Amino acid sequence: MTQFDLVLVGYGNVARRFVSLLREQQAALRRDHRLVVRVVATATRHHGCVDNGRQVSAASTLAFLRDVVTRRAAAARDGRLVVVETTTLDIARGEPATSHVRAALAGGAHVITANKGPVAFAYRSLMRAAARSNRWFLFEGAVMDGIPVFNLARETLPLVAITGFRGVVNSTTNFILTAMEQGQPFDAALREMQARGIAEADASLDVDGWDAAAKTAALANVLLGARMTPHDVSRRGIGASDGAAAIAARAAGHRLKLVVRGQREGTRVVAQVGLQQLPADDILSQLDGQQNALILTTDLLDEIAVVQRGSGLTHTAYGLLSDLVSLATHGPATRQSPRSAPPRRSPPRQPRRT
Amino acid sequence: MTQFDLVLVGYGNVARRFVSLLREQQAALRRDHRLVVRVVATATRHHGCVDNGRQVSAASTLAFLRDVVTRRAAAARDGRLVVVETTTLDIARGEPATSHVRAALAGGAHVITANKGPVAFAYRSLMRAAARSNRWFLFEGAVMDGIPVFNLARETLPLVAITGFRGVVNSTTNFILTAMEQGQPFDAALREMQARGIAEADASLDVDGWDAAAKTAALANVLLGARMTPHDVSRRGIGASDGAAAIAARAAGHRLKLVVRGQREGTRVVAQVGLQQLPADDILSQLDGQQNALILTTDLLDEIAVVQRGSGLTHTAYGLLSDLVSLATHGPATRQSPRSAPPRRSPPRQPRRT
Fold first, then answer.
1. List of chain B residues whose C-beta atoms are within 8 Å of the C-beta of residue A155
2. What is residue B261's three-state secondary structure?
3. DSSP E strands: which ranges in A45-196?
4. B304 contacts A308? CB cut-off 8 A
5. B22 → chain A, closest CA residue
6. Cα–Cα distances in angstroms (integers) from residue B202 to residues A346, B91, B193, B199, B211, in the given order
7. How close, in Å, is residue A157 to chain B by CA atoms?
8. pLDDT at residue A183, rounded to an integer
9. CA torsion sign, A334 to A338 to A339 to A343?
10. Rounded-to-integer distance, Cα B235 and Cα B228, Å
11. Of the residues A78, A280, B188, B271, which has the fewest C-beta atoms closer than 10 A?
12. Residue B314 DSSP SS3
């Protein structure tokens, strides 16, 4: 039986659902994965920091995290300490999430995160840090919630070279475009997404395409071996003025979608987020409301599409849960190395099994 | 570095492409998976049996296989002997493939197969045999070629309960239906599929729905914990007389598709293959020609769809290759156990990692 001690950095909706999901799955975790999990510390910017049940004053979540990890050197040394990163993202810099991940790995903790910031801004350097500490950095929930994307590439597509991708990966903009097609105003659709807790706290992150650009950078870094940040992604968002085009596209049997793309071009990777009018028989055309999809272009298997047909907090929390099971299954993370940059062809997994 | 000795049982198009793919991927297998592979014996019904480069006379492929495995007891004991099963299937009984798999496991060999017969007819008993011998029985290529289906469930969806599935999994019938929609005659479309090597040697296996029924039984057994054979699947095929319905469906903006379904109903699993007229916004409606797709219904992630957009021999051969890498990655197969029958909720993986 393995026992993981969890340190939660960020304790918003996702982290809370993760904790309740852990409770629901407690018996199955024990039975099927010989895993016992307990939360030992929690750090939030607004509600303060708690370690071992006691409120602790700290200069910042980062300072608190460093202290907590240091105090748990024994669990860290045994590979039983896991930092769960779910803080709110500053899209301009990928912080404070990236610093949290770096500090956790430096202290010998594994890191699992539903945050796209670290992998979008610093994938390669964080993978190196994880390798130095012989720990895992996992982030399945960063794109399409718990639907296997990074795990799919790493665990199920050995030897396959991924040469490009396209998809719809931002639920808020897809919901708004779907609503505007039906004549609903932009603002009302956006407010509905915020009321449901789907839209980012800062709506501009979604509607200006920043969330999609961060996910695009994450996908490009991990699947295509790129070295980019969201600022390197050519980006276009949506606004109220796109309503007429959405209605016109639908009337012509097409759909207007905010499509992300990444592609190897020689030794470079190019990536963009943009509005596209898609024919009805495109898989991405069928995505209504909050549905997402990703189409991978590969050498051996042509195109493979993965479609997320539902959504919600449980999906995102499940991304963290599946990362936690990966930790328990894989054991210590030796031989981790980030995927090579193009054009070398190599498998899309980076942390290898031992 | 691990060395696998392969025994090929069946040496048709799929096995030949597998061997050439092994050669193409030789360097990557060595570099990324520390794996060296060589073919030590080949058994075919028509061209005889070859062991270690020498033609051998044998009463049957099964008798030859037993001899080959016995002569390689040392490799079997070390978990380095792998039988690759790709013989032609007798759909009424799942033979000779099932007997081949059973003999190989009994002799201590791992088995990988692109054959749907063994998993459709005898999944549970073969998994028990694999567990007794502490070896793996893997079959990724049995449904949707090398596109991750069984690996997806086993490796990337821990703790998720799959409650049902639906999909389009037979390329020949989908190609014929797509052709008939456009006014082409049934026979011409079928001949084209046979000329391309896609249709089964015995065309009735495809057009009468037997291939789809075998895949449905395989999916139901593995993903839903059913105990069924293809004979337990309610089945309907397609014929020339469905052309008018296909044209009419298309004219109405719909598509006529041969849809497979499996679902838990209380403690039972029900499964069927049948023609359905689907609305245009159904994912399965978009599948043209040889494209396949599978939609899983789950508890934690709602519906997940996986779409195979290309096809061909390389896809099928890749299913075997990914199984081979799974063997190398997972090591010896301790703690294997078939997935429980409904209604117990448990994860969809059966061979567990060690």
1. 151, 155-156
2. strand
3. 48-51, 54-56, 81-85, 110-113, 137-138, 162-168
4. yes
5. A159
6. 39, 10, 12, 8, 11
7. 7
8. 94
9. negative
10. 14
11. B188
12. helix
Q: What is the DSSP letter of A95?
A: B
- Tell me which chain B residues have a C-beta less than 8 angstroms from the C-beta of A295: 307, 309
Token pair recorded at residue B310: 């290309």
**pLDDT exceeds cutoff 50 at A348:** no
Rounded CA gap, A280 and B231, in Å?
38
Q: Which amino acid is at B284?
A: L
Q: In the block, which residue shows the tokens 């011998």?
A: B133
Task: Give per-residue pLDDT as tens, B30-52.
Answer: 999 999 999 999 999 888 999 99
Cβ proximity of B348 and B46 under 8 Å: no
CB contact under 8 A, B305 and A309: yes
Beta-bridged to residue A24, according to DSSP, are none
Prediction ipTM score: 0.92
Q: How confident is the model at residue A333 (pLDDT cuts 50, 70, 90)?
A: low
For CA atoms A341, A343, A349, B1, give the dihedral sign: negative
Q: Is B274 helix (H, G, I), strand (E, B) or coil?
A: strand
Distance CA B10, CA A345 (A): 31
Instruction: Say yes or no to pLDDT of A142 above 80.
Output: yes
Gap between the Cα atoms of B10 and A64, Å rounded: 62
Residue A13 CB-half CA count within 13 A: 12
Residue A343 has pLDDT above 80, yes or no: no
SS3 category, A132: helix
Confidence of residue B184 (pLDDT cuts 50, 70, 90): very high
Helix (H, G, I), strand (E, B), or coil: what is residue A221? helix
- Decide if B284 contacts B291 (C-beta within 8 A): no
Ramachandran angles phi, psi of B172, nearest 5°? -60, -50
CA atoms within 13 A on the CB side of B238: 33
Taking the C-alpha atoms of residue A257 and residue A27, their distance in angstroms, rounded to an integer, is: 42
Residues 6+ apart with CB under 8 A from B158: A32, A33, A321, A322, A325, A326, A329, B347, B349
